[in-house]
């Protein structure tokens, strides 16, 4: 919308695609979506587009079921994750509340479904640092505690964070072993976000991890955590001969 506003006349889809760094197909799809939302955009594929003056996006509208889904999700994040993410979700709900039609705002106070707090104490390590490393594709330097302390300090490429009711895991590519690992955050003594970024694309690494054949894994640590089993059965995690579960 902002790009269309900058142009006084008709602008071609090719120009929009070049300015936004996306494909022409994406431009056509997004313009059609905006038009369906009520935006006054004239033009069509092959001709060009123009945004008529005074065009504004309509206010957010949700059904009561959609609002309840948002409230339940916000409660879960607020009570099961770290302080930073908990604050972020409260801010997000406040922003949604500010743009909802007045008659729908009371639905945000829905208390018909209760999301309990995690029975296990939150890990002492800051999950916010791990999430930042994931977003920025930065390497992590990790050290282990307890029975895994002998593993020493290692450098890993974090690719996914797994949050469960009783435990939290991080999936990563280990530079030392050149293989994927699923690591229990409870077993970590320290985590440091390094300035160095890993060169491989995180999403591509996740795809490669998912593509590995699902089969029992020989774990160096030999842990039998039911959450690990759930993680390895889920569509977002795979246990295999090239994945160590720690």
TrEMBL record:
Signal peptide: none annotated. Residues 1-50 form the Helix-turn-helix type domain. InterPro entries: CBASS_pafABC_assoc_protein (IPR051534), HTH_11 (IPR013196), WH-like_DNA-bd_sf (IPR036388), WH_DNA-bd_sf (IPR036390). It holds the Pfam family HTH_11. This is Helix-turn-helix type 11 domain-containing protein. It comes from Rhizobium mesoamericanum STM3625.
